Amino acid sequence: MPKNRSGGGLTATQQAAKFLGVAALSGVVLAGIALPAAGALGLAAKGTVEGFDEIPANLKTPPLSQRTTILDSKGGAIATVYSRDRTVVPLKDISPNMQKAIVAIEDARFYEHGAVDLKGILRAMNRNVQAGGTAQGASTLTQQYVKNVFVEEAGDDPDKVAQATQQTMGRKVQELKYAIQVEEELGKKKILENYLNITFFGQQAYGIEAASHRYFSKSAKDLKLEEAALLAGLVQSPSRYDPVNDAEEATKRRNTVLQRMADVGGISQATADKAQSAPIKLKVSKPQNGCITAVSGAGFFCDYVRQVFLTDPAFGKTREDRAKIWNRGGLTIRTTLDPQAQQGVQTSIKSHVYKTDKVATAVTLVQPGTGKIMGMGQSKPYGLGPNETQYNYSVNKDMGGSNFGFPTGSTFKPFLAAAAIEGGKPATQMYPAPYEMDYPDTVQSCGNPWVNNSVPKYHLENESESEEGPYALKEAMEMSVNTYFVQMLQDIGMCPVSQMTDKLGVVQGDGSKLPQNPSTLTLGSNGLSPLTMASAYAAFANRGTYCTPIAIEAVKTADGNSLPVPKTRCSQAMSQTTADTINTLLLGVIDSGTGQQAGLDSRDNAGKTGTTDARKNAWFVGYTPNMSGAVWVGSPSQNVEMESITIGGVYQDKVYGGQVPGPIWRDAMTTALSGQPAPSFTTVDIPDAPKDEDEDRDRGRGRDRRDNRDDGKNKPGTTTPFPGITITPGVTGGNNGGPRGQTSP
Q1: Rounded Cα gap, residues 633 and 621, in angstroms
Q2: DSSP letter string over 516-530?
Q3: 410-434: per-residue pLDDT in tens?
Q4: Is-above-0.85 flag for pTM?
Q5: Other CB atoms closer than 10 Å to residue 354's CB: what's the count?
Q6: Using CB atoms within 10 A of its CB, is residue 219 exposed (0-12), middle (13-18) or buried (19+)?
Q7: Which among 400, 350, 403, 399 has a CA at the least distance from the CA of 378?
């Protein structure tokens, strides 16, 4: 929207003269503006009439852009966003003072003339000649309204705005024809209403309702005389007469409006004099726009909703189509965000990680079976200030997240286990699982086998020397034994794992498919987002059915119509038995394994810890039958090794997935699920591995117990005395799947 009405090129006198010339040449125009006689100034030339007639007959009036309100699932407001801050109101809700003021200063004969005020043009031309410059304009309110329609339609496109405001005879004639149409179809009161709702009043306020709130923190229906006069005076040049930045200039302009109101009989001179003597009393409300205004730390979720709207074909065929709807606004968007869950996320984050810490955390909660995102937050607040960011660490790059996501460490292992069980491996499967080993020489993939050809061989080891097999799956999962899962991958091949992650919607943070190498498909060396992980684990909670995440439940337009919204898509990623088996395994991680610090009281809960190379990332991903959540802790730039570090005011010697992310998950889930049902998992019976009488099988459950080192029995490749259980010999040699290195539990 232009800040003033200054023309370009011709002087005001020349423009008026040319405009009169065009009017005199067109009998059609003269008829439209209700001049006394169509032939008074001469008939039109044939070509001019044809040119006028070629202008489309109907002015296409775009819906006015307005505020969009984003709500949580209970109807509470999360944030207000807009391209233009505007609230459309009917004329009855606009103070009569405002109606009189805008007519007096902009078009005093508004109710007396047609689309064009010939007397006004003649008067303005005479005044401007006497003044030797531009002293008075001649456009009617109707013409100004038409011009504003062109500007509104141009949106934020600077080229289209320039075209809509250019001072040319072609544009003037076009405005004139549409003004005639508008006068005939709408009538004076509706034109005035539309004008007051479309006009720019400065300070990011479009329309009288937004302007009234911006400058006086009140509704337009409550404007006093002097307040209405001030706002009416802004229309000519919102920047020049801005009362916030130049009270003196604004006062002069306000008083000019008041005097004009008295001159045309809108108010008495005494009333004008009294109002002119009153000082300007502003009560400014700062613009509240965008996701930065979101409550309860929901700025990142708000931005995710915006990204969904702009990218999902449900809201339009092309991004341009979707952007037009979004920028037009006036929408009421009800989302999936649960206020109780969001409170749990934010309270837990603030308790465990400070925004000033060297590392950050991101937490996402989703509902199994529906895909609904229930909570989303992070320790670096949404914004542009110190220790703030607009990158959403919970989501993929295309939705406003980091470029690649974050390596997940051992939280990837349940995907591998699910693929193995789905393919027929028993839950009692055992592997030698030495403390350390080289990666295998070859591993089968969906295409050509992966071949270890690095020199020297990449090396793999477990977190603690006490972790030396053989192990069965249950204990290997509880203790997160790296070598066990590498041997499992060698046994089943990488293709089943890739197929499983595809079914679970697991892609890298940049949206690309996971590469087929042992490091990625065993130890989680590639970057994923918390939303991806929470949604994938929700399939375990949902007995094998994966549902795509959704954030929007309903959208209504300003006129009350409903827009179609994207729906979750659910599909069976694995059998119920496989999911039940994984649930049973991951129950053990929390009961007696690396995730004990994450355990919830009085309800079934399962999960998995993960810590990556050099402790640059730590994760806990866990779930109950009715809620799934992922917690990541690390440096967004991946340049902080979490050793000898203080996080949330607590010194950490070495950070593990169960030690920092685990309690964050526990506290967030505790609040989110307070008062909610506590259903139980369907579990399966997994026999414990038989124990050798001379062997201590404890091996330090949890990462801080490293003094119970195994005595060396049952080395890789040996036979086992355990009846009914097979140990698959390990294969030494190979690398760790690439230069990303190994990950830890």
Answers
A1: 12
A2: -SHHHHHH--SEE-H
A3: 999 999 999 999 999 999 999 999 9
A4: no
A5: 18
A6: middle
A7: 350
Handedness of CA 480, 485, 487, 488 (dihedral sign): positive
**Residues in CB range of 727: below 8 A, 6 or more apart:** 430, 431, 432, 470, 714, 718, 719, 720
Close Cβ partners of 537 (under 8 Å, ≥ 6 residues apart): 414, 607, 621, 622, 623, 628, 630
Q: How far apart are CA 715 and CA 468, in angstroms?
A: 8
Contact 608, 622 (CB under 8 A): yes
Cis peptide before 456 (omega within 30 of 0): yes
* Cβ–Cβ < 8 Å for 287, 71: no
CB neighbours of residue 642 within 10 Å: 25
CA distances to 55, 116, 171, 181, 608 from 177, rounded to whole Å, are 8, 10, 10, 7, 70
The dihedral sign for the CA sequence 8, 11, 16, 18 = negative
Across residues 631-649, what is the average pLDDT?
Answer: 96
Which amino acid does the sequence have at 92? Answer: K
Q: Give the residue, 327 or 488, on which the prediction is more confident.
A: 488
Closest CA to 8 of 167, 169, 132: 167
Among 43-52, 121-130, 488-497, name the one with the lowest average pLDDT: 43-52
Q: Judging by DSSP bridges, how do beta strands 442-443 and 360-366 pair with one another?
A: unpaired
Length of the chain: 745
